User: What shape does this take?
Amino acid sequence: MKLISCIIRPHKLEEVRDALTAGGVSGITVSEVRGFGRQKGHTELYRGAEYVVDFLPKLKLEVVVSDELLDAALEAIQQSARTGNVGDGKIFVGPIDQVIRIRTGELDADAL
Assistant: This one.
């Protein structure tokens, strides 16, 4: 099993969710986060004063998938989250040793 953590643009959430669901992923956790990378923020004008917005709003998605679904899930995220511009986000993949469904006590693949 693998944990996919990805940072995407907020307006791409529905597209990414639909693509993952179509690919067989059954659960997603979404968090509102703020950050920057190469995009480096931007300046905005508010009441005549210019100020710098260093941390941009993004969404962090966390998905646990079986090893068999990993490649399909990664492709779905890449295709649906891509705009072609700086700031599209990143995908991180790491191992998961164990999953337990709290309600039933099911383990690993059964708990997904």
User: Anything to note?
Assistant: The mean pLDDT is 90. The radius of gyration is 17 Å. The CA atoms of residues 83 and 107 lie 38 Å apart. The helical segments are 13-22, 70-81.
